[in-house]
Design a protein that fits this description.
It is built from seven helices and nine strands; from the N terminus they run αβαβαβαβαβαββαββ. The protein is α/β, with parallel strands linked by helices and 231 residues long. The radius of gyration is 19 Å and the shape is globular. Bound molecules: 5-O-phosphono-beta-D-ribofuranosylamine. The site of 5-O-phosphono-beta-D-ribofuranosylamine has 13 residues, from α2 and β5.
Length: 231
């Protein structure tokens, strides 16, 4: 019954296409071990998000996270930053690579690059980052060292939209920990990581489920239906 087979095939194909069209496409950028990328990939699969990670891209060939992404069947690629003479040249090449996947969201997960304004503008409203401090405190590098030197009693991590000003975009979520007298950069980093792995996937999920509204510098999260934001 070739005609019937053909019709089934046609219907099946349409279903697959519709399903994919409803899925938000995520590109994740990493520079190193990629544990946040892993936590996002894990949550997306376990919680069956309406999203798929369409690529993991690194600026370094030795980024350990690439191997993990490949093991999940996620396409990976590398745009080697040190091969470019200028930031503009690198960002243009990176943008070309990212845009091959037409992403709805670009997730910076330990992507250790300062981005140019045109690049950031190109992904305005659809690029997010995780920064290991309670922004607006301690922007830039060595955030745990900065926190220890400032003598703060509470430290944390922030997920935010990326804007042209480094580590300053609208804040989506934060998690805080107490700083103890005997804390070191290493102990703070280790304690914060488990919080990162909770709040980053959750923020990405909010984005792909359309639960985020940005007004000026403030992000409203519509968690009325499902999430307990106190976690
Ligand atoms: C994390 O601490 C993140 O906050 C910072 O860089 C680190 C990346 O870790 N931006 P990983 O590569 O996700 O394991």
């Amino acid at each position: 019954m070739p005609a019937l087979k053909g019709r089934h095939f046609y219907l099946g194909l349409r279903l697959v296409q519709r399903y994919n069209a409803a899925m938000k496409k995520i590109v994740i950028l990493i520079s190193g071990r990629g544990s946040n990328m892993q936590s996002i990939a894990h949550a997306a699969k376990e919680q069956q998000w309406p999203a798929q990670i369409v690529a993991v891209i690194s600026n370094r060939t030795d980024a350990a996270g690439l191997e993990y992404a490949a093991s999940l069947g996620i396409p990976t690629s590398v745009v080697v930053s040190k091969n470019f003479a200028t930031r503009d040249a690198f960002d243009s090449a990176l943008q070309l690579e990212i845009d091959r996947y037409s992403p709805d969201l670009v997730v910076l997960a330990g992507f250790m690059r300062i981005l140019t304004a045109p690049f950031v503008q190109h992904y305005a409203g659809k690029m997010i980052n995780i920064h290991p401090s309670l922004l607006p405190s301690f922007t830039g590098l060595a955030t745990h060292k900065q926190a220890l030197e400032a003598g703060v009693k509470v430290h944390g991590v922030t997920v935010h939209f990326v804007t042209a000003e480094l580590d300053h975009g609208p804040i989506i979520d934060q998690a805080a920990i107490r700083v103890f007298d005997n804390d070191t950069e290493e102990s703070l980093s280790a304690r914060l990581l488990s919080h990162e792995h909770l709040i980053y996937p959750r923020a990405v999920r909010w984005f792909v489920e359309g639960k985020l509204t940005v007004k000026g510098n403030c992000v409203h999260v519509d968690v009325s239906s499902t999430d307990n934001i106190e976690n």
